[in-house]
Sequence to fold (487 residues):
Amino acid sequence: MKILFASSEVEPFSKTGGLADVSHALPAELASRGHSLMVVTPQYASVNASKLKKLAQIRLRFPYGEETAVLRGMDWSERHRVVFLDHPGFYRRKGLYQEEAEYPDNHRRFAFLAIGALSAAQNLEFDAEIVHLNDWQTALAAVALARGYRGTSIGRAKSVLTIHNLAYQGIFPKVAMDELGLPWELFTPDGVEFYDRVNFLKAGIVFSDALTTVSKKYAREIQTPELGFGLDAILSLRSADLHGILNGVNYREWDPKSDQLIPQHFSATDLSGKERSKQELLRRFGLESPPESARVPVFGMVSRLVAQKGVDLVVESLPWMLESDLYFVALGTGEPRFEQALRQLQKRWPAKVAVKVEFQRALSHLVEAGSDFFLMPSRYEPCGLNQMYSLRYGTVPIVRATGGLDDTVVDIVSANGNGIKFGPYSAPALAAALHRALELYAHPARLDAVRRRGMKADHSWAASAEQYEALYRSLITNAALAIAQPR
Fold:
């Protein structure tokens, strides 16, 4: 199959979150399975253009004016090409989506990306059978395919929209309809209108041939008022076309048997190196290791410090727990109120709590390898990756039973348990889960069994890619059958 994959960020060229990891790993896995992939993404200021080859130029006309971009590309592998839209006015800025606040022309910037991806495929004669879109930034391409590209080679492609996080929807004043040339007949409750504004993600949901999101549990959750963010009704109407496909993990980077960023390798059959990582973790965070005769657990957290991630629960529940013998280390940045709250915990318990308000890739690997337990008490979590990293590193995840956390972690009440889950979004519920962790830690043989079960779990991209393949083929087959049906 020929697959056009459009994304606003692609690792290692640009990244704000998990979308970038998916936009590299999934196309790479699909290419390794024999498919041809063209990934289209902006050429941000962070992209090193020295190794990019100029391919062509595109020119798009909008009612507000004409925009031009140079297409530059590189071949990641024989079947996997990355094409960049080089539009300095739109993309060579300090941040991808914002600096102090959202860029006011984001509707123009990402309409250009969405339509530019289709134009790039045409210009480079890449006759895609599938156009895979990601989040609101590329969602308008589904409208264009359905309304503006009929009769063209790419107009026959089937569209798939992946919702990575429904909370971010690309909502703009309705003047964007005229600026972008969107037909006003689409500005209806069952079209692109959303409380008298234009909603890019909703447009993609309405016009895409198939929808996916990044875990089965999250696919169900976004059809409810609690986590539907105003789109639960339209998603419920399209429930037959909505598929939950779990993201995978890049085990070439995240595996304690080969990780070059930890002090000693270890595996499910030989856990001895994990203790070395634990000692180095405490040293790097400025905490004094306990005497050899004492066993003290380390609870780790690597996270954006925002409300979605349950940081408020951590701040509220930890004081109850710090009367016990334990360490807590946290790495991340985010909202100032949460950064300050964690610093206050460190100030109050300097021998037990250490916080680094920053992000270091190498240190995040050390937190995963050296911690005994990993906290992810998210309010909601579409997929999550750190809980899957934790499993591979023998670090028992403590998670709230939501989204991908619920899909990937099995509670230790089960015979095949590999983690600890809790349900209500409350500090007492998290504290109870932490108490269960301390009880598990008090029984080393049981703890090691839980660790080994987690380390043997397989969350590689192979299984995810296989499900996407099946979805793509079903769309292509159904389209061919529809054409073949006698009228």
User: Anything to note?
Assistant: The chain has two domains: 2-248+462-484, 272-458. The radius of gyration is 24 Å. The domain at 272-458 is CATH 3.40.50.2000 (Rossmann fold).
